[in-house]
Amino acid sequence: MLKKYMDRFTETGFEIEPFGGKEYAICAVPGNLYSIADRALFLEMLDGLTDISERASDQAIREKIASMSCKAAVKGNHRLSVQEADALIGELLTLENPYNCPHGRPTIVAMTKYELEKKFKRVV
Fold first, then answer.
1. Which of 33, 38, 75, 96 shows the smallest number of beta carbons within 10 Å?
2. 20: left (phi over 0), alpha (psi -120 to 50) or beta
3. For 70-96, what is each residue's pLDDT tens digit?
4. Phi and psi dihedrals of 62, rounded to 5?
5. Which distant-in-sequence residues (6+ apart) come within 8 Å of 27 by Cβ?
6. Opening angle at CA 97, ends 113 and 8, nearest 5
7. Contact at 8 Å (CB) between 33 and 73?
8. What pLDDT, on the 0 to 100 scale, is given for residue 91?
């Protein structure tokens, strides 16, 4: 599976090199997976590709990998440093569509100053 989809993983931000025989070394992972990427996560991503048909489009495969990356990305209960949060927001804003994750969930929410003050009961 890895050989079959290697170029898609590379496009997503993985750097994977042969390590002899049937072994591979993951040299780099996408930034959004940096702090949580491990062997189990990568194997889960590979296993997730086994149900894709031979005729699946490149776009469908990219979406599957992006979706799996999204599921494994930073969660609400994961604390980030200010530097990590700034870097993540910076990367987000370089995307073609920074407003939604691959699942369609919002990543940015607009709120007026009035709405924010109302949430904190600063407006009567």
1. 96
2. left
3. 666 777 777 888 998 898 889 888 888
4. -60, -40
5. 15, 16, 17
6. 145
7. yes
8. 85
**Predicted structure pTM score:** 0.49
Answer yes or no: is pLDDT of 35 > 80. Answer: no
Cα-atom radius of gyration of the chain, to the nearest Å? 18
In SS3 terms, the chain reads as: CHHHHHHHHHHHCCEEEECCCCCEEEEECCHHHCCCCCHHHHHHHHHHCCCCCCCCCHHHHHHHHHHHHHHHCCCCCCCCCHHHHHHHHHHHCCCCCCCECCCCCECCCCCCHHHHHHHCCCCC
In the chain, the amino acid numbered 5 is: Y
Residue type, 111: M
